[in-house]
Amino acid sequence: MGRKRKSGEGTVRLRKDGRWEGRVVVGYDDKGLPKTKNVLAKTKAECVEKLNVLKSSATPATAVKVRADMPFGEWMEFWYENHCKPIVRPNTQRGYEDFIRLYIRPKLGCVPLNKLTANDLQQFINWMRKDGRSEHRESRGEGLSSNTIRHCYGICRRALEKAVSEKLILQNPAKECKLPPAKPKELAILSREELQKLLIQARAEGYYEVFLLELTTGLRVGELMALQWEDLNLKTGELRIERQVCQIKGELLIQPPKTKASIRTVILPPPVVTALNEYKQTVFSQWMFPSPKKEDAPVAPSVVSHRLAKILKHAGCKKVRFHDLRHVFATNALEHGMDVKTLSTIIGHTSSATTLNIYAHVTSDMQRQAAVKIDQGIGKAEATESAPVAKSMPTMTDFQPTRKRRRRWGTGSLSQSKSGRWTGRCAITWPDGKLKTRSVHADTEEECERLLAIMIAEMRAEVAAKRERLSAEDKAS
Q1: If pLDDT is split at 50, 70 and 90, which confidence band does 261 have?
Q2: Which residues of 429-439 are buried (b: 16+ CB within 10 A; e: fewer)?
Q3: What pTM does this model have?
Q4: Which residue stretches of 64-206 are H helix?
Q5: Nearest 5°: CA angle at 276, between 272 and 278?
């Protein structure tokens, strides 16, 4: 028996006259009846190819019969494909697709659109709170988080609002539902000593510049990984943010930043510019933080996030997300007197209200300082020995890193055999696309490093000469 074609792929059959016919639904008329088109071919393979061309040219994104009594699951798919997917970012698309596939269609997919009630949606919300996770991730508990439920409900409400505007239903039943209260996740903050440990350990593992730049700018991880050397003016310290890296199903995509406000220029402190200038001498790529495995590609955001977890563990610090470092920067900036409007511009928020709501974490020190200022301003109290005063800056930690330094991209690799002899290897892609590897050997690590650097320089010179020769030959021809 042949493979059954999926819904929307069309049908392919062998006619009595020996020819193959392909037919696909391209829409529906006013009465809800399907409208089809067909193609003919001598072979099945040719018919399938013609059918695919026909589908791409004549079939809408989702060929469904839009009507008031259509299943809610079909309406959700139609709304997503035609009204939502074209205007949201890839990462958001994946989240919407998961909500529809895992929760909405299994529980509400068969209910007719015009029969869906507020009670149906409320039971759906209650199910998500109690058992929403049990069918998919048993090890992580049974109920979904309040924020996940609210996101899923929001998708349903928007889809139903569109159904109202299309006059498929009279009113939106989602408006009458009761939701669990939003529970904003409190972002963790690293102490001054933990920040020092983080940077010391990051230097030992080859990620010092990554976290130094993050802690002095508060960039999103995708924006940080998408930086190129042309974005940095080493003379003025100006850093231009105009792109971000997104990771979709293992593939890296370079896209514009999250919002228009995210396209911005920040000024780096002079010590950071000096550190980046020294770091640039060790990087042979247009990317500021190139991938150690893929040529001409940045480090993936997931890689640097996982590396942060390891560095924090090696340094003995509490676990935080990479995005929490953005929170650390914003909090420190506010504590040291930066106004909210300036901070909002630096971190790329559309409004200052967003900055205050998310990142203005008021520490106990800030509260105590505010209390003293109020007391002095209203009660005209004088500062006493018992009153909080500015503390002296703590000394640097004596923490020692626990891992060796990670090698930079383009500097090859070192290994030591059981006999104690060292081997250095480097792989470079030649202009013809072939990856060539060469090796050097030495009795000591220092000598092997020296020979490896010489070999890499020679290989790069050969590649440059070959590219120039090929370019000259192309111009001559």
Answers
A1: confident
A2: eeeeeeeeeee
A3: 0.63
A4: 72-79, 90-99, 105-108, 118-131, 146-165, 192-204
A5: 120
